[in-house]
Amino acid sequence: MKYANRNALILGAGRSGEAAAKLIMETGGRAAIVDERWPEGRLAEVGSQGIRCLRATRDYLPDGAYDLIVASPSIPMDHPWLDTARTRGLHVISELELGAAAWQGDTLAVTGSKGKSSVVKCLVDALRAAGRDVCDAGNYGTPLSQRALERPDRGAGAIAVVEASSFQLELTRTFAPRLAAILNIQADHLDRHGTLEAYAAAKYRLFQAQRPPEAHAFLPPDLPGDALPDGVPLLRFGLAPDADWRYDADSRTVRHEETAIPVSGYFANPILGPAAALIAAMLTHSGLTPEQIAAAFADFQPLPHRMQRVGETASGVAFIDDSKGTSLSATQAALRIVGHGVRLIAGGQLKERDLAFLLPDLRAHAVKVYLIGEAAQTLHDAWRETVPCALCGDLPTAFHSACDEAQPGETLLLSPGCASFDQFPGMSARGDAFQILARAAMAEDTGSR
Questions:
Q1: CB-based contact 325:417 (threshold 8 Å)
Q2: Residues 195 and 214 occupy one common structural domain
Q3: pTM of the model
Q4: Mean pLDDT, rounded, for 229-238
């Protein structure tokens, strides 16, 4: 491996940091992990595996003749540790870069602002159903370094389908997936990247190390392709009539040249048409037949907390959990998918500044908005002239207020448009709490009849 026999310092004690340390040690090197705040019990757990564990303040980076720095995604580019590493002339990479250097199999990669996890899941499910040796990796849940560790042959003959976040891509240089795609780019994580341009630039790093003839790049029609490496074929996907892979809403098919692939189930909604077109394109370039791809659409089961329909009361009020919708663009998509009659629960830790672009969709689809968390007052001030808004504080209060006011045929939609960490350990915990409330409401409504 390119990074074998190195003395590495890993910044961040999360799952990706631990996987990076183990991979370094597996390839003959030494590894230490540094963190500002080790969770209770974590230091002993990691240390028992032979990994040196260090504590440091934000302004102090330990020195130990390290020749490699591996940064976890949680470490922002302006962190003092990275500034110190650069001053010392140390080579700094991401955990994704480290894992990619060890992985010997095929690699497909998807990034984007919303919907990428569902695309990755569908790709993995389809390839597995077709008999391929495939695994998911990256931001989807399991670090690529861990996937490389799990296989003695480092994935030779296998396929890794990687969900790549902008945080992971900032420090990549040689990550070169055979098939790479940006699903979409919308305002997100501007609290870290500063501007939409910087955020987009991080996404485009996905293509920087691709080389012909094997590599292919996939972009929607509205994103520029002039920054791609020379000779890498660019294929367009989406709804545009001239897209190489086009979703046709009338026939619910993905069309490519003379081929039409039926799309049913989750991805048949026109809002998700671009994702369906991308999936069909990447699976075709991975050797699957139109029949196999159509079956993948029909069999697809969405991930939890991603437009997950929890159920409906006996009186006809539906509940949808989109807790994964942590950006306002995701909330916009959720509103468009549900349509009219939405009672929206939104709020949490706001990650972006432009709140006005959502106003036309709120006006068109939302009956009322119930606001929670740190951003409640900010969102209330921005939206109250367009749609009725209620300051509710927390999720149970918002849920019960919305449930008491909901009419038959309406939908209670949790699509917060914000991160969850002000009130929950993560978006899954927030979605679980919503589902518990929804199931209790459905049981109560049934019992009252």
A1: yes
A2: yes
A3: 0.87
A4: 97
